[in-house]
Specification:
There is one protein chain. By secondary structure, this protein is of the alpha/beta class. It has three domains: 119 residues, D-Maltodextrin-Binding Protein, domain 2, CATH 3.40.190.10; 87 residues, 3-Layer(aba) Sandwich (D-Maltodextrin-Binding Protein, domain 2); 67 residues, Alpha-Beta Plaits. 29% of the residues lie in helices and 33% in strands. It has nine helices and 16 strands. The strands form four sheets. A five-stranded mixed β-sheet has the order 4-1-5-12-6, sandwiched between helices. Strand 2 and strand 3 form a beta hairpin. The relative contact order is 0.15.
Length: 290
């Protein structure tokens, strides 16, 4: 049997990645101590590695494809093919940000004030490129962890990854610039894509994963109504949403079905009922393929 060697990020992205694959229809069974999870897709040969290492292993062919952040692709400098963007992170669906931060009491106000200063970060190459772009020369050192605690004590500033900014605020740090905005990317080895079977498998996974993300926050809505009441129902539904309409066996009655944002549905269901809709059913979605 042909196999696709797939890298899954271990660490902060692990749980959200496994959940995304589950919604896409691929169940991956992993334990905290295992780096070789199994799945219900026999065509996948999966290994879990840190996001920071993923692009390098995809570049050298250890993996045919993998998931990692754009930040780590840029940091590694690896030459890989980006299959698609997958907008999800550890705790949400917004991009994560690498920010330049200093202690709240620091006299440093702008990037220019870092001339000749010392900065700690895990993203050394990204930081150096950012400083060079701004015409600033500073010492950039690799941080092995606890980066927030170093600001103002061991270094003048830090470049750190944040989703909500809560950790920075808790450590009384002030953001003075955004270095990079990053989202998860599905990447592939360039030679792998010359193999027609593997290319097709990768494209199939991309379609399913994007479909699972597109369904996030969306629900399906079905209802029955008298055909003469359709104009009133259409007035309640969002203007850009055109429902699927089908005839019922009962003369003069129709069924309509539409996909909407869940936050919209909870607001309009009472109005739909008042407009004449009956048998209203709301159901969850795993995938929406456009």
């Amino acid at each position: 049997m042909k196999k696709l060697k797939l890298g899954i990020p271990k660490g902060s992205l692990q749980e959200s990645t496994l959940e995304l694959f589950k919604k896409a229809g691929v169940r991956i069974f992993a334990t905290d101590r295992s780096y070789f999870p199994s799945s219900d897709d026999d065509e996948l040969d999966i290994m879990m590695v840190r996001s920071q290492e993923m692009a390098r292993y995809v570049e050298d062919g250890t993996f045919d494809a993998g998931l990692t952040g754009l930040d780590w692709v840029l940091e590694s400098g690896a030459s890989v093919e980006e299959v698609c963007e997958l907008r999800y992170a550890k705790s949400g669906f917004r991009p994560v940000r690498w920010v330049l931060a200093v202690p709240e009491i620091s006299p440093i106000k702008t990037v220019k004030d870092l001339q000749g200063k010392r900065i700690a970060t895990e993203a050394v190459n990204i930081t150096k490129k950012f400083l060079s772009k701004n015409g600033v020369k500073a010492e950039v050192e690799f941080s092995w962890g606890a980066t927030e605690a170093k600001a103002g004590n061991l270094v003048d500033a830090i470049v750190e990854l944040t989703e909500t900014g809560s950790s920075l605020r808790a450590n009384k740090l002030r953001v003075i610039a955004e270095v990079l905005s990053s989202t998860t990317r599905f990447i592939a080895n360039r030679l792998t894509l010359k193999d027609s079977w593997k290319k097709n498998k990768i494209e199939n996974l991309a379609i399913l994963l994007q479909g699972a993300l597109a369904a996030e926050g969306m629900v399906g809505l079905k209802m029955n109504l008298e055909e003469k009441k359709l104009p009133k129902i259409m007035a309640v539904l969002p203007a850009l949403k055109k429902p699927t309409i089908s005839q019922l066996s009962l003369k003069g009655w129709i069924a309509i079905e539409v996909i909407l944002e869940e936050k919209t549905v909870k607001r309009i269901i009472p109005d739909l009922k008042r407009a004449g809709a009956e048998g209203i059913i709301e159901y969850p979605l795993n995938k929406v393929i456009y």
